[in-house]
Specification:
The protein contains 15 helices and 17 strands. By secondary structure, it is α+β, with helices and mostly antiparallel strands. It has one domain: NADH Oxidase (3-Layer(aba) Sandwich). Strands 7, 8, 9, 10, 13, 16 and 17 form a seven-stranded antiparallel beta sheet that branches. The protein has a two-stranded antiparallel sheet with strand order 1-4. Strands 2-3 form a two-stranded antiparallel ribbon. The chain is globular, with a radius of gyration of 24 Å.
């Protein structure tokens, strides 16, 4: 997880640059359109075929942007090659989609009872997706013709509801321009048929992903720090639920024996089952981000291709002999202590460094557990006494209610919970070589690629009364609406 850098003077120092009239008009179109969510759901489709794409032509093509491999997709009934050159998304389009995916939308309500686990919330900064414990553990990799960047909105907020009128539209571009971390100045070397040298039937990106990562497209990959979710859920489970981690083979406690008694830890949870729970919690965040982007694309008239059949370990960079991918590093684990043969991602310095033990950032159980616990209490955080986030960001609670929360003993994780968590993590590391053990602490398994739709494919192959049902007015009018003054390569309606 990235270091959460609270900025007490963020509101006073941050003034998004005024939009030029053309940008303001496009933002107004996005936020003031009368398009119904239910209408968007009725026409929501993937539309995989974009400008510059190909489908089962049977002709060789060199992926100069993806390792320089020459590949051939066998010819089939849907053989087709776009007659148009690819047209990349504009900055406004990408900014809107990134914001829809997981952008700032104000302060969360934090309406969890203090006696019901309020101290489990790591952050009170709202985003457009829900998250386990509002942990801000998922960021958005943006892959386009400029390379790779990481969209990571800051934990401060300019208003309790960020987009409340035309004067707020500039924030969307401000966040996109200023809250991204540069990763690479080129596309990753990933393309269809990425496989070890000498293999002919291995397609690590999946058989249907021929156009994945193609020039002109923007590939949005939610990348999650499952480690911070794992450690935070461990603290919450021990404090509030009475669940403890246990050895899946013997059923005995995983290092936390001294706290197994009524009122403390009472019900065992096998290590792999707990890890699977964390994976599901992460997957729900990634899925919400992808669905938000799909709905935004439906409104804008763009193609949104949800992708999940690739090997995300390879995309991240676990197999550099095959593809460097996103260039992250991995822990060398002892195969005898790795029950599921899981690769363990250590991240990439300055970009993403997950909570995992052992790692350069978190070499011990103590360092990881204490870090995650203090995310809510250190200076500037939501339960901090100094530069309290809620006071600085004017919500969600009144000053009086906030003071009562801070003074209540159940708003503070007990010392015994921290001690039990540390002992559990030590046990897992000793037994399996790393913690988490059965899952990698970084995942990027579900994503969405966005492009300008090529209507010719749908006109040629698909049904419709005079117009293929895939081609909504938003798709047909896209260039006129979102690229005013530019030529429309599709010919429009």
């Amino acid at each position: 997880m990235p270091e959460i850098e609270y900025q007490p003077g963020y509101r006073e120092a941050t003034r998004p640059e005024p939009l030029v009239p053309a940008e303001q008009e496009l933002m107004a179109r996005a936020f003031e359109s009368p398009t119904s969510l239910f209408r968007l759901l009725s026409t929501l489709r993937t539309r995989r075929m974009g400008l510059g794409y190909r489908s089962e032509t049977g002709r060789a093509e060199t992926f100069s942007w993806a390792g320089g491999n020459t590949v051939t997709q066998p010819e089939g009934p849907l053989a087709w090659e776009s007659a148009c050159e690819p047209v990349r998304l504009s900055e406004v389009e990408e900014a809107l989609l990134a914001w829809a995916g997981l952008g700032p939308n104000g302060a969360i309500l934090a309406d969890v009872a203090v006696q019901g686990g309020l101290d489990g919330l790591i952050s009170w900064a709202g985003r457009t997706i829900p998250a386990s414990s509002n942990d801000q553990s998922v960021d958005l990799m943006v892959v386009n013709d400029d390379g790779v960047s990481l969209y990571r909105p800051r934990p401060e907020r300019l208003a309790t509801v960020e987009i409340d009128g035309p004067d707020d539209y500039a924030k969307v571009l401000h966040w996109y321009r200023h809250d991204r971390v540069p990763v690479d100045d080129h596309r990753p070397d990933l393309g269809w048929m990425t496989a070890p040298e000498g293999t002919h039937n291995v397609n690590a990106l999946g058989p249907g992903q021929y156009n994945l990562n193609r020039p002109g497209s923007t590939w949005f990959l939610p990348v999650g720090d499952l480690g911070v979710e794992w450690f935070n859920m461990l603290l919450s489970s021990y404090e509030w639920s009475g669940f403890y981690i246990m050895d899946p083979d013997t059923g005995k406690p995983a290092g936390c024996d001294e706290w197994i008694r009524p009122g403390f830890l009472e019900v065992g949870f096998p290590v792999p089952v707990f890890d699977e729970l964390i994976l599901m919690l992460h997957s729900s965040q990634a899925a919400c981000a992808v669905q938000n982007i799909r709905l935004a694309c439906e409104a804008l008239g763009l193609g949104a291709w949800a992708v999940g059949s690739y090997a995300d370990d390879m995309v991240l960079g676990a197999y550099p002999e095959v593809a460097r991918g996103l260039g992250v590093s991995f822990l060398e684990r002892d195969g005898d202590r790795n029950p599921s043969k899981t690769v363990t991602c250590l991240g990439r310095p300055g970009v993403m460094e997950p909570v995992v033990v052992p790692s350069p950032r978190f070499p011990t159980a103590e360092s990881a557990v204490k870090y995650v616990k203090e995310l809510r209490y250190r200076r500037g955080a939501p339960l901090a006494r100094d530069d309290n986030w809620a006071e600085r960001n004017e919500g969600p609670y009144t000053p009086g209610a906030m003071q009562e929360i801070l003074e209540h003993p159940r708003a503070h994780i007990p010392d015994w919970v921290e001690a039990a968590a540390i002992q559990t993590v030590r046990w897992i590391v000793d037994r399996y070589g790393s913690c988490p053990a059965y899952i990698s602490p970084v995942r990027a398994k579900f994503s969405v690629q966005v492009h300008h739709v090529d209507p010719d494919f749908y006109r040629r192959f698909q049904t419709g009364d005079g117009r293929p049902y895939a081609l909504t007015p938003a798709v047909l009018d896209h260039f006129a609406a979102w690229h005013p003054g530019e030529p429309d390569p599709t010919g429009g309606a």
